[in-house]
Amino acid sequence: MNKPTPAIVSQDAARRLPRWALLLFCLAYAVPGLVGRAPWKSADLASFGYMLEMARGQTSWMDPRLLGLRPEADGLLPYWLGAAAIRLGDGWLAPAMAARLPFFVLLGLAMAATWYAVYLLARKPQAQPVAFAFGGEARPSDYARAIADGGLLALIACLGLAQLAHEITTSVAQLAFTALAFYGAAGIGRRRWWPEIGLLLGLAGLALSGAPTISAFLGAGAAVLHVLATARPWRKGDWRVLGIIALATLLAILLSSSMDLWRWRILLPQDAGSKDWRTILRLLVWFTWPAWPLVMWSLWRWRLQVWSRTPSLHVALPLWFMLVTLVAALTTKPADRALLLALPAMATVAAFALPTLTRSVAALIDWFTLLFFTGCGAIIWIIWIAMQTGYPRQGASNVQRQAPDFVASFSLPVFLVALVATLVWGWLVHWRVGRHRAAIWKSMVLPAGGAALCWLLLMSLWMPLLDYVRSYSVVVRNVMAIAHPAQCIQQWGLSREQVAAFAYHGGYRISQATPDQLECPWLVVNPEALAGLQVQASAGQWQLLATLRRPSDKGDDVMLLRRTSP
Q1: What's the rounded Cα separation, in Å, for the pair 58 and 307?
Q2: Closest to 7 measured CA to CA, from 292, 359, 302
Q3: 253 and 187: one domain?
């Protein structure tokens, strides 16, 4: 028996967002940040370093190393994808751009899988809106498309998605495969086999991307929920569903075991202080904004469908995916990369809040979003004008303080792109304040549009500045001005990303210095490891030529030393 539904939706409110507009919207969000920039500190650059070494044949594809160091993130599949793209693009595409192409596809896969997952869940009988006495309620397919549009917009609106989803790390692969597994679990049992294939690839890909435990828990929980959500769980068709989910989960577990992917990374509660918990709480608030208030609202309005003997899958399934990834974020580090995996499920739960919102709540969302993103966009423009003209003086001085040697440049195409994006935002605001728009996804238009606008402005107007302060190109150029890349050079205590930066930006083949092998005339040293070097080698053998500092980061110095005696 279906529980009373809180959704009251007319056919007029179930209008769908035009496909071309939704596609352009996704492209406007996904493309900026993937093109026109150097690899950034730290995980983005470190991952690229391993991919570059693999593509050049400098390390094994089954056990990649960077000067003897294994990757911090487990899972080989993302590195394989990036390295294969670099090798295929050799000669006609820059390595950094080639490595980003598979991750651009993965981001698009995450968006598409989220849309289809929401659509399939919204088609379920328990998710349908109230039937009107004299007709006029939304048709099931139109209602599901409108909810799916809202879910995708809610995903894009999440503030934490922007930077991490545009990197070339295992986190992006985990996000895509989590969304793919979510789609498979949402649609399994239909006549077509696409959801089953999606579930199998999603759980296996998630395990191969370094999250085998999450993969196992998601698969097991999906199987249990499908049993609990069925009034007669032991029919032939339900046995088939349970068997497919169990098989996909078992294959992911066996794959993880065969490749030795299981790692214990859990931080027990006594390992984290009160300050860490406060930090995590702040991360949850801003990272998942604006989805989390809608999630709370949705869980309250749909509580009868969740807390019952036969829970409704359209809320219970995304809730399980959300809880598993939230627990992973609370018990592992870095928390933000684990929290990224919760966003597709949170966006789904938030989407089911849209048909239950009152006018006052919808208006509050619109006005807060309008003020917040308009203010953010204005600040980005003001700082850019200050970089170009020196006025306002306060903005120019702030930039000069953070990047003392940065010289701004003007690009007409970049300016026009940013200007068009700002004008589109103005049109979007004008459209939204119109009283004639009744679509249920309308409350997500401004949050998603504002997030896309600010990200696009940052990745266009501020790109030269961000490249200057977030990449190691400046440090490498300063070293190249003293030590030519063709000369023998060793390193002592550098991080993975620093080694990768010297290999990519300078073409250096830096070797690892050891106490009994300090034969090169040049030595690049991490200042924190200098004391250890002085213990192993005579201080009089080396002359400090320069201490090179990465802009905006005083704790990321590099020291260049030259041998003075054999």
Answers
A1: 55
A2: 302
A3: yes
